[in-house]
Request: fold
Amino acid sequence: MAAAAAGSGTPREEEGPAGEAAALQPQAPTSVPGARLSRLPLARVKALVKADPDVTLAGQEAIFILARAAELFVETIAKDAYCCAQQGKRKTLQRRDLDNAIEAVDEFAFLEGNNQECKEIITS
Reply:
């Protein structure tokens, strides 16, 4: 007994062997007209990749994976920075929230010390 049509993007229940409903399983949406797999423009990502002198060729799948990885990175650091803003009883992210998230999360350690480089990029 399915609670939603398969492929609709909504969870559905499946019956187990004894007739009990199994846990909700998210279903991947089928080809929805106008749906984008990546929120970042792939042409822009490809241009950034081509700007690296060490890269000679980059396939479309690699560009898509890089775009998706960048989306996940931005989402993760934004969520962590938002938590820092909430600790300050604010809803608006500020630069210091990003700095605090970078200092607090070990996975962002590679960003520490790059503040001057970031300031130069932002101001140029």
